[in-house]
Amino acid sequence: MTADGERAAGTLHGLVEERARRAPAAVAVRCGGQELTYGELVGRAGRLAAVLAERGLAPGGRAAVALGRGTEVYVALLAVLTAGAAFVPLEPTAPDALLRHVLADAAPDVVVTEERHRVRLADAGGAPLVCVDTAAPARAPFEPPEVTAADLACVFYTSGSTGLPLGALIEHRNLLAAYEGWREVYGLTAEDRILQTASLEFDVFTADWVRALGTGATLVVTPFNLTLDRAADLGALPALVAAERITVLELNVRTARRLTALLARTGGRLPGVRLLTVGAEKWYLDEQLGLQRLLGGEARVLNVYGLAEATVDSTWFDARGTAAAEGAERVSLVGRPFPGTRVYVLGPNGTPAKQGMTGEVAIAGAGLARGYLNRPADTARRFVRADFDPDGRVLLTGDLGVLRADGVLEFTARAATVVGPLGAERPTGVLARVRAAVHAEGALRGHPAVREAAVVYVEPVPGRRRLVGYAVTDPAVYGADGWSLSQYLERKLRGRPVPAAVVTLRELPRTRAGKLDRAALPLPAPPEHAAPRSAKAGGRSGGKGGGKAGGRRSGDAGFTGGCAAVVCVLVFAFAAWAMTFALFPGSTDLTGVPSPYRGFFQLLYLCENLAFGAGIVYLTIGFEAVLRLGRPFGLSVLTHLAIAWLLVNWWPQDNLYRLTRATDWPRETAMVFAFNVPLMLAALVLVRFVLWRPPAGKE
Fold first, then answer.
1. Which of 52, 145, 262, 402 can bridge 84 by disulfide, Cβ–Cβ 3.0-4.6 Å?
2. Among 417, 178, 182, residue whose Cα is nearest residue 282
3. Cα–Cα distance between 389 and 372 in angstroms, integer?
4. Mean pLDDT, to the nearest integer, of 5-20?
């Protein structure tokens, strides 16, 4: 095989060069009035690669590519690969802090940009700048270096455990493996016209052009930025899709929801679209089925799931043929792995869990990144050894999921979004809290006034974690205020944790990638200010006095629950009193004890019985209250048991002591170790629980 043939088989730019050899006149990229054929694209990329090599970009190096929307960005990306280097996609309009962090962390040999961004990028980093619109041609002939499939192709910057973006190291073979999976599942051909709506800095941007240019299809770039420009007119999208004869496109969840609302309101369609994929956030089955109905049966609407560290997409779910079963608004099905990818759901011990069990999602296969640039600790934390996988290496996603009996993966939640930074705690350690939030979110989405919902744990006061709901509502529907939604959840979530408040918003806050911005969620009003004035005055809840945040009513519901708890304590206390006569006959015999001491002992016996009753009730219903305090799951379990033991312990202990002779040393010793030592340990557990603080840097 020739050198060109080897490169075409083993590198990303070689794959595009092969498409150019087969059809040089075919249109590769379109953006507005600009257009590049495959021949022009590859030719210009080769000439720019020569310029970059003269400016210091050597094989194995890195080049930041910071260009706006248009055709030149694809020339630059291919030029960097042709020069034997890896590209670092960088949105030139990103905030200064993000630009400085990426340029400092990636330490590129050159920055490829254009004159209008020169000053800003020069201030953000010290690497030489090559402006594609003013750079002079190379002076010397350029011979492309040999590149292998194991060489680095790009560095995707994605959020990490430290809160700073981390650079995931993606090799040529990772992108080629992902391309083969997309080509097979999506049925890509050279006749496709693939729309690109994403911005340069996001991994799906690279996925779009790899899918298109690797297949020989036409990549059509939207002149407007639907990801970063919140004011972009979505109404222009259907017209663009029709005019450009688009057949394939991918959207993030936020844009897909806006598109669904637009098509439902206008009765519009996306003619010619055969495949629409949606990803980057939790997308519910009812939303997927709704968009499928609007587009018609000939279009495929897929829910895709993946991470940048696993080369963008790992699983997919096709909604066609799926019935709109009850509860569709509560589940997100992300389906089965792409070819070459393996997906596991891991239990607490780090091995694959049984079907139907919730656990942490782990990804393995040919698309797995090498690790993180300059972050060995984070690499070791996320990319771990796994004996159960053929490659012996998996990526821990931080997401929770369930592998159903039919083999379909159900996405539960991103644990850090629900409970905040996890620190050293694995997602399975916060499983109970995440489940509570997921159930509440599903119930909140079921309200007819709610268009979008999120339920997360927040800390209005340091160390005090509360479950809070956030809802984007339709004000025209009755019961759209926070108080009414809280009362609705009280009825729907019987026996499950209920959010302390529901905050209504015009729109959920979003990150640059369009995902839920947990840090920007507003804190709810204090409980004493949450009830509408009409409710406080005895009027019907949800009246005109309703505020934006509605807490659970501390009147009727709190009084009823408190009365029920008191009744249960009394029932169990009576049971303890009755069992005393059956199990410990004579232990409460006060014959011969003079007054007033007899009354003191009778009061003591009553308190022991009541403590026993309180301990049993707390053991049954108190665990969620301990979890809400935000300590690690294992410590919360031990604390719950310790408190229950401190309450229950006195009844059997004192009864046995009263029936034991002072000189019965074997029995005295056994009781000391059976009762007193656990009391000391329980006290130590409580001290640890009270003094616990998050690890440094994880607050």
1. 145
2. 417
3. 21
4. 79
